[in-house]
């Protein structure tokens, strides 16, 4: 008997660590049964909605059989000595890696058992590809395509021992016979399967399955749905084995809970406060097509109109309301649905409220990507278990307010949307601020419209002709465009002034008469310098940018909003975070030149609450183009120079549409185009920052709970991080010799 299995006189294969004592679902057979049962329940609850939502051509019985087979196979590869050593604390995932990840071994073992497994129901290769990808490591590494199916790592051993002999594996095989209808007798080739696999053996078997996958032409949507279902089933199956069954039953009941018309009417009634709806908000509620475009500027009531649209299209469904950034999603949650309907706020810093059993593998599952309030792609280590837990919030509510990544990230196999898949599978969707999407994000939106046949509302201040054509092609139908209130959009809100340097006398004069000034810079260091100048002039100034600790950034965000609500002068100095995450109305805008779409977003914060006449917007050139291309800065200058006199939102939208700007959406998506490959890739264009902890914060970080760590993270420039150490939770640590910090100013690089 191999020593790894001699534990408390139990000859048992484990699926998870037994740190907190032995439980049935810590065993491989127990966990497998939990996941198969979870998969069965998932498909039974979602039923034909899965077929309709994704336009599948198979029957739900075939989908269920394939999905159950994937669930049955997903952890077979844990029956090896390296994994069993790890869950028993005798091997460390980071310092003593397994030669082959367990899900890759599941694929190899499935191929060995193919003759037996294909005698059951369902599609064999779809199930095997889903099983191999359930930890998002198959065929990819660091977010990019890898040359091989999986990596064979230096483990300190020259072979790996597989526990597939009858005395270890019989419970798994018997379960397949009983629950999946597989034959009682095994083929001779399986009965003679060797237990010791050398590197050469594994390499040979890897080549065999790669050749088999190369000849396979999958049903793309079926494969995507089964992959997604398995990852969700594994998450709830893991919880089923660790938590009170009554708590899990509440999760299942919550998944069945969908919107009613009174739910949505409560949101609308509270927001209207006795006023009547505007005509275009009524028109949104009357829209009958599956995909609808709402074209309206800032402050015209798009969001209320969206909830009226939901009264027609989201009753009997869940609803996702998707914003570009964490800041906009938070404000949308607070302003509309909090306390009005069962809802949840989902983004990269959401708290978690359940605890799953761990396998000791979380440290080996790498980094995650998320989007900050400026729309920048950033990198951080995030515990896989916490992501699973966080997603259960969305399972149990009717409305999820989130960043767009929570939904569209599904197409790039990002963790949170995969864990939220059971909700996505029965939801309607609102995507706000679509004009802010980069080519990668807009490409994902197009593929989403192709894949998901759900009701979708797209909202934007403007849609370019090429975007409309691409949306209609993806949707497969003519898409109606419902314009905003023409009267509101034709209010002359702005008066442009292009200057070579900002006019501080004009700023001080505005504040002297009680005004509210918003000053937007393109870089954090420039915003800090403007803030210091304002303070030196004894002005009531607040600073807001992305380079704060997360907890401090929330305070600065709120300070800006509160400052604009008070009856006193204030100047807010911000970076691009102001473009989407600040719902305020300035009386004077000062801004560096940027790309046209960004400038129009900044203008959306000037005279938002229309005062009856145009207000001044001053634009001046930045000291350098970063983070924009010079062409974008030049186009921004052309925009400002194109208008003399007073300007309205309708004119700005028309200018954009006539510019003839042609996008190049990135449409290759791992979930739909990767075939058997399943790995997490970036949804958005890469940014220039990495999320880190400051060395001076480590002591306090280590004295807090793990769930508190994100409060201390700071996005920093990624150019000099190669030699930085890592915290035990995976975050990079910025040396205090390189970065200083103050709660007032944020993080600054030591010159």
The gross shape turns out to be globular
Strand tally is: 29
Major sheet attributes: 7 strands, parallel
Largest beta sheet: what is the strand line-up?
10-13-9-14-15-8-16
The separation of the N and C termini measures 62 Å
Tally of helical segments: 32
| Mean of residue pLDDT values | 86
Q: How big is the Rg?
A: 27 Å
Low-pLDDT sequence parts: 327-341, 347-383
Structural class: alpha/beta
Provide the β-strand percentage band. 15-25%
Give the fraction of residues assigned to helices.
40-55%
3D structure, described in words:
With about 750 residues, the protein is of the alpha/beta class. The protein is about 40% helix and about 15% strand. The strands form 9 sheets. A 7-stranded parallel β-sheet has the order 10-13-9-14-15-8-16, sandwiched between helices. A 7-stranded mixed β-sheet has the order 19-20-18-21-22-17-23, with helices on both faces. Strands 26-25-27 form a 3-stranded mixed β-sheet, with no helix packed on it. A hairpin with a 3-residue loop joins strand 28 and strand 29. Helix 3 crosses helix 7 (about 125-130) and helix 21 runs parallel beside helix 22 (about 465-475). The N and C termini lie far apart (about 60 Å).
